[in-house]
Design the sequence.
């Protein structure tokens, strides 16, 4: 698989790049700082390119000839800041994907992007991440309403840790903003494992899915 990771120098993107390389995929990391990426992933097979994620023109040359584009972008500013990263970047990524004739697009999002009256978002989550979640929700709406020509997947993720991949099963709920009955956080290694597993099949194309690793039942 020829895979492009936008935002590859973040902690989740870095883990995805490492696992994809281990599986023998052709991986291109699109970043702002090449030195930072090469310090994190010291593998000569990794292609690293500097881009402006807000510019389709900057992205198109690096999307051409690829099979999959993954957005691993995350908000790095203050949580009280006005957040536009997710909507603005996707308005550059989607036209670039179309121009480059890449159909498969996976976007990392988050739990609680939309309010579910039956399972309200914890107040502390809204207090801390409200601005981020609002922009993620706008981005998701854009994908769901205006990108039916693409094979997209929105992977809604819970709170993450820097842990490695495990062998725990995934609990996945389609068209949901959280996975009911499963508490805890998810290791970034398992996020990468889920992304690569998802990209190996057609199961979640055109779907927004909430995911977490589930403990084994005794």
Sequence:
């Amino acid at each position: 698989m020829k895979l492009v990771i936008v935002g590859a120098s973040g902690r989740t993107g870095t883990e995805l790049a490492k696992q994809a390389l281990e599986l023998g995929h052709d991986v291109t990391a699109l970043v702002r700082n090449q030195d930072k990426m090469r310090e994190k992933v010291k593998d000569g097979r990794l292609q690293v390119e500097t881009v402006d994620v807000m510019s389709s023109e900057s992205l198109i040359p690096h999307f051409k000839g690829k099979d999959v584009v993954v957005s691993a972008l995350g908000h790095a500013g203050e949580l009280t800041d006005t957040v536009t990263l997710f909507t603005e970047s996707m308005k550059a990524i989607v036209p670039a994907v179309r121009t480059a004739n890449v159909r498969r697009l996976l976007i990392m999002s988050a739990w609680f992007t939309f309010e579910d009256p039956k399972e309200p978002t914890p107040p502390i989550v809204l207090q801390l991440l409200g601005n981020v979640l609002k922009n993620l929700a706008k981005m998701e709406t854009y994908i769901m309403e205006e990108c039916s020509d693409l094979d997209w997947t929105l992977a809604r993720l819970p709170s993450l840790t820097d842990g490695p991949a495990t062998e725990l099963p995934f609990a996945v709920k389609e068209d949901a903003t959280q996975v009911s009955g499963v508490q805890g956080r998810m290791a970034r290694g398992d996020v990468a494992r889920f992304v690569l597993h998802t990209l190996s099949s057609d199961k979640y194309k055109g779907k927004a899915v909430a995911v977490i690793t589930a403990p084994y039942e005794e």
